[in-house]
Amino acid sequence: MAKKAVATDSNTPSTSPSGMSEPDDASNVASNTSVLRQPAEELFAHELDELIKADKHPKPTGWKMSPRSVLTYIVGGKCGNLTITPKYVGHDRLVEIAISTLVTDRALLLIGEPGTAKSWLSEHLSAAINGDSTKVVQGTAGTTEEQIRYTWNYAMLIAHGPSQQALVKSPIFRAMEAGAIARFEEITRCASEVQDAMISLLSEKRISVPELANEIPAQKGFSVIATANTRDRGVNDMSAALKRRFNLIVLPTPAKIETEIEIVTNRVRELASNLDLRAELPAADVVEKVVTIFRELRTGQTLDGKNKLKTSSGVLSTAEAISLLANSMALAGNFGTGTIGDDDIAAGLQGSVVKDEEKDKVVWSEYLNNVMKKRGAQWRGLYKSCSEHNA
């Protein structure tokens, strides 16, 4: 049976989800207070440096550390006297499969519900393998084939014709040249014909520039980590030809509430250290209440399985629970007492649950009156605040 990592999704500050955790020792983390969000290779530079120094295992071509050290960086462990904080909380075996895929010439596709740490895991894998997680194509309805391959500086193109200087290389192009990892976020958000521009790149491992009569082969170490949201399947489903060029890993939502509470607690702590939220960290019972509400409305039943519930049209992912608590801290810190209260949580819950005013308001009202109201004195304050917001 796969081990569970013990002991930190973009883009809400990357969130994740079924798997994120952050350091208890702030001295292990690089700090740059002028940057809103640091890439993983800067935020965890100390851990990466120590793992590279201590690494005694063989490294694949183009990798900064061995697959074993990459695994330690992702799931946590020890490196000499340094405790490596887990970046993904879940099944170690899934991470092992992901790393093994990147050793081969196959690309990796991470799929799952929103908030299951697809982007988070993608970023940290790239950071550990290459020391650079910034070669990213963000898939959207407006993504074009040029953003996957290359385009031109048209002023230079008109003035001097096609040249290396006029060529504007995509992140995937640059990764092929450098023998590095490129990330393709939310690939299924792109139109099918744009997605299929990846087929020849992943098959032939080279990119052709006909205007320069040139063909650039991928250097050893090149690969692609793509992510896809299962909620977007069918919008722009990947072709069978493209799917065959990926090894696919499904990242599950946290199986146990204790795991999800741990993820949320650690990630909120990390966010609070980077942002001026001006409030105390949420108490354990506050985190448990938020996670409980999200899990019950997400699964359509109470935790004890006794009551069936209508589900909200919102995602209610682990990442959204993290965002809700961070926002509640900001409310409490700037407009309250500095300690998260029921009204701070209720405001966030209203926005998270009620996405469709007509349908979700009824779902939320039924949950409040049939579940939360009956949970006794510990939930009474939150019930009243939520009822006022939903009136």
Which properties best describe this structure?
391 residues; alpha/beta; Rossmann fold; Helicase, Ruva Protein, domain 3; 2 domains; five-stranded parallel β-sheet; two-stranded antiparallel ribbon; globular; disordered N terminus
Summarize the structure in short.
With 391 residues, the chain is an alpha/beta fold. The protein has 17 helices and eleven strands. The chain has helices at 40-43, 45-54, 67-75, 92-103, 118-130, 145-148, 154-160, 171-178, 192-195, 197-204, 240-243, 257-274, 284-299, 318-335, 342-353, 357-370, 377-389; strands spanning 77-79, 82-84, 107-112, 136-138, 150-152, 167-169, 181-185, 206-209, 214-217, 223-229, 246-250.
Order of helices and strands: HHHEEHEHEHEHEHEHHEEEHEHHHHHH
Tell me the name of the CATH class of the largest domain. Alpha Beta
Strand content: 5-15%
Assigned CATH architecture of the largest domain: 3-Layer(aba) Sandwich
Note the total helix count.
17
Unreliable segments (pLDDT under 50, ≥5 consecutive)? 1-31
Quote the distance from N terminus to C terminus.
48 Å
Strand order of the largest sheet: 4-7-10-3-11
Shape designation: globular
Oligomer: single chain
Number of strands: 11
Q: Averaging pLDDT over every residue, what do you get?
A: 88
